[in-house]
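I have a small job for you when you get a moment. Would you make up a two-line entry for one protein for me to read? No commentary is needed, just the two lines. Write everything out right here, beneath this request.
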Amino acid sequence: MNLVDHLTNLPRSVITTLALLVCVVVGMVDGMSGPNYSLVPFYLVPVALSAWFVGRRTGYLLACLSAMIWLFAEVAGRDYSRLDFAVYWNDFMELLLFLLTALVVSALKGAFEREKTIAHTDHLTGLPNRRHYYEIVTAEMRRNHRYDEPFTVAYLDIDHFKNVNDTMGHAEGDKLLRQVATVIAAAIRETDTVARLGGDEFALLFPETAGDSALSVAAKVRQRLEADVESCWPVSFSMGLVTYLKSPATIDEVIGRADSLMYQVKDGSKDGLRREVVGG
């Protein structure tokens, strides 16, 4: 985990306190070094830090504080009779620079978060996409390796989806996919994840879940789909469910087992669920 990840995981109050401390330390050094040496770039560090990790308002607050500290440091070693308009003008310019920095950094953070969301979201259903799902499962694998906490993954495929597209049109197929996404998201727990992997395939992750608990959640999902989807479209659902008491070494193995079970159902009678426990 790099420094940015560490800072991201810190509470906002801690980051704000850290930024304040940096601001004060820079001001003290600035005051001791005298007016002949400019430390303006160092004031930008707490401003940018707070604007990125806490928010624009906090960035503005640190900008104003930095400008005040800079002014105090600037006049600390001077004879008040020698202070002129230029000192206050320069401080005003520093304030504008700090405020602009907070504005730009917070805007960049907002753009970064939007791009990150787009990169991790399926555009049709609004669910996490394959890339995001793999990242979440990878994190769960690490937790399993470290704490031996079980987890369950599930693969779900819509039976006869192609017939819906061919006979009712792709717009109706898209409507079906969105409804499936809505139903599954409402049926699972807050700690669970559902993602669309592409086409008519969906995947679920049940963290810290094994045995009857995993089967119970999967059964609830299938019941909701039967009531709210199968009653409206001529489709059914094939699901593969794998509980990992001990995770394999690679994510391809983790995902592959559930995918294989799901295809066993599809190659058989469809509209069913196959389950497997690994590592017991």
About this structure: The chain has a mean pLDDT of 91. The longest strand covers residues 151-159. Residues 186 and 243 are 22 Å apart (CA to CA). Residues 130-278 form a domain with the Alpha-Beta Plaits fold (CATH 3.30.70.270).
